[in-house]
């Protein structure tokens, strides 16, 4: 199927604007590919219509083929529908202990995911984690979580037989507070199918603990059922994020697309195996590739993106050389970083960041700082982005409140930008060859 799809894309060979006929033909295939990937029909329809509007009349740049252009439009629209570029991190911004509530059907992977999150937060962010099982349905459930906690090296709530889920949850928060835990993960019981008793239990726990995150764990292999489950849970208890488990199987991830459309909640994490390390951030761009049939259209998109990124890079490099690099250009660089999900490739292109790159090696960076920078820049006026030197105290205040940051953070960004500009002036003196060295280093 996807082979056919790329044939259609490759068949679009005219230059200039994309015609209605080009796009309609390509969209028919996209529609089939999406249905094949388990995307719900209404979601597919809506998506295809939106993309058609976007694509017809779209100017095809000389540097890429029309097929690449449509593929890229489809891919970008998929990424948007999946929640935009980059991963959405867990929200832990509350007074500790921060409660995270895990919900979902039995067997979806709640307990395993609780352990995975505990391991990740403990290891990467050095948080003190307390795991608490509220599962009084299955006799061994609390024991299962306790053993998981031992293996992971995080805390677990002592088991008190006979307690109800709400009592256990309150006790978990008490212990969390008293013993200085940063995060308390509340692992609830599931049921084989959704019933009112389960929902009431979860609502009671929610109301008693006010979780900062209510994460729904769904099994990606169940396709459309996972979407229905998500809808029901969201209506009944309200969810803040989704974890899709078993993405290591051959599920193509179409459910992911519907998930966002149906609940409005972002997919935050993806389970990719039974091991406790097998948890990844959800990157819309990766799943988009999977939905379209990896290695095929994805190849077209990649080539188009490379070409466009290269053009963008050259455009920015020219502005740098002319000493005209502004905050809009910086924002454009950040977008590329977010798009790639990894920044070591781009960092080398940003003067002054080479050292940071060396320090990071090839690791994925916490991109939250860039998200912040993006927010700050988008709260600036056009004039401020072009000429940052006009940003004085009152403007800083306005920008900070507009972007949900602080004046200190605005200052930090401006300082960093200033350092970059200084670097660039130096590069200017080095001339073009120095610049090239810098870009390739
Ligand atoms: P719960 O009933 O929701 O708590 O589900 P469990 O966490 O007990 O998981 C049920 C089964 O699914 C276990 O055998 C897990 O090892 C397995 N499992 C959980 N997450 C994943 C995953 O991402 N990939 C795979 N392959 N198996 C998983
Ligand atoms: Mg469980």
From TrEMBL:
Keywords: Cytoplasm, GTP-binding, Hydrolase, Nucleotide-binding, Ribonucleoprotein, RNA-binding, Signal recognition particle. It catalyses: GTP + H2O = GDP + phosphate + H(+). It is a peripheral membrane protein. It is found in: Cell inner membrane; Cytoplasm. It holds the Pfam family SRP54_N. GTP binds at residues 104-111, 187-191, 245-248. It is an enzyme of class 3 (hydrolase). The keyword GTP-binding applies. One of its GO terms (cellular component) is plasma membrane. GO terms for biological process: SRP-dependent cotranslational protein targeting to membrane. GO terms for molecular function: 7S RNA binding; GTP binding; GTPase activity. Its EC number is 3.6.5.4. InterPro entries: AAA+_ATPase (IPR003593), P-loop_NTPase (IPR027417), Signal_recog_part_SRP54_M_sf (IPR036891), Signal_recog_particl_SRP54_hlx (IPR013822), Signal_recog_particle_SRP54_M (IPR004125), SRP (IPR004780), SRP54 (IPR022941), SRP54_GTPase_dom (IPR000897). Involved in targeting and insertion of nascent membrane proteins into the cytoplasmic membrane. Binds to the hydrophobic signal sequence of the ribosome-nascent chain (RNC) as it emerges from the ribosomes. The SRP-RNC complex is then targeted to the cytoplasmic membrane where it interacts with the SRP receptor FtsY. Interaction with FtsY leads to the transfer of the RNC complex to the Sec translocase for insertion into the membrane, the hydrolysis of GTP by both Ffh and FtsY, and the dissociation of the SRP-FtsY complex into the individual components. Part of the signal recognition particle protein translocation system, which is composed of SRP and FtsY. SRP is a ribonucleoprotein composed of Ffh and a 4.5S RNA molecule. Belongs to the GTP-binding SRP family. SRP54 subfamily. Composed of three domains: the N-terminal N domain, which is responsible for interactions with the ribosome, the central G domain, which binds GTP, and the C-terminal M domain, which binds the RNA and the signal sequence of the RNC. This is Signal recognition particle protein. It comes from Kozakia baliensis. The gene is ffh.
